[in-house]
Amino acid sequence: MYGLSAKMAIILAFSDSICKYVSNHATFSSDILFSLNAHPGASVYDLTSDISRHPFVEPDLVFVHVGTNCLPMHRPLSRTLDDFSFLISVTKSRFPSASVVISSILPRFDSEVYDRRRSELNSHLLHLCSRQGVFFLDNGSRARRAMFSVDGLHLSRAGNISYAKYLSFSLSHYLQLHRRNCQHRFTLRGEEWPGLGTDGGSGRRTRSIQERSRSQGSTRDRWSGLG
């Protein structure tokens, strides 16, 4: 398929507009193909539909980043959580040989109300991913405002560069776990987004769900600031 070598690993990503520029700055190794499908303005339901119709049938890893467009007050969080549950089921059915990674929703600097709802939804997502046997990538909650554009919602150019490096490392790590046929009950935490001008390649670790529950939670997570 696509004329790829048998040794080429494939990471298939689905996202709303938040990650649409990540592939421009990704730092994956040459044996990894990163294919990003960005759907600006997408809800969880929209991406579920995109995933169900996608023709690419043999990825090693499927990464999903969505949810910020589902935070308005008129929409109950319980409904969004149900949508996530269905999204996970559809993704696992559509790509049965792949490991699935669900990303936490990034901070909202445009609305304190939305940001509180984001934090609550992320907490529920962590447990949902554990129950449904998929990976949960916790991006942390201490992002600096400088990582985001004027609107407080989308990443700035500097934020895109930093997040792309962080995501490249994180997904490469999950790919290693997939290759080792590890059980799909992990969350990658305690990470730092690499600062500009650094490779961000040290000091990272994988922690289990059980370890995470004994910690102080996401307030310890940090994204690196701009130097």
How would you describe this protein?
- Its EC number is 3.1.1.47.
- This is 1-alkyl-2-acetylglycerophosphocholine esterase.
- InterPro entries: SGNH_hydro, SGNH_hydro_sf.
- One of its GO terms (molecular function) is 1-alkyl-2-acetylglycerophosphocholine esterase activity.
- The chain is an alpha/beta fold.
- It contains six helices and seven strands, in the order βαβαβαβαβαββα.
- A seven-stranded mixed β-sheet has the order 2-1-3-4-5-6-7, sandwiched between helices.
- Helix 3 links the parallel strand 3 and strand 4.
- Helix 2 packs parallel to helix 3 and helix 3 packs across helix 4.
- The chain is globular.
- The termini are far apart.
- The N terminus is likely disordered.
Structural class: alpha/beta
Provide the residue-averaged pLDDT: 82
Question: SSE order in H/E notation?
Answer: EHEHEHEHEHEEH
What's the total helix number? 6
Provide the gyration radius in Å. 16 Å
Strand content: 5-15%
Q: Indicate the percent of residues in helices.
A: 25-40%
Poorly predicted parts: 1-5, 195-223
**What is the 3D shape?**
globular
Main-sheet strand order equals 2-1-3-4-5-6-7
User: Describe the biggest sheet?
Assistant: 7 strands, mixed
Query: How far apart lie the N and C ends?
Result: 43 Å
- How many beta strands in the DSSP annotation? 7
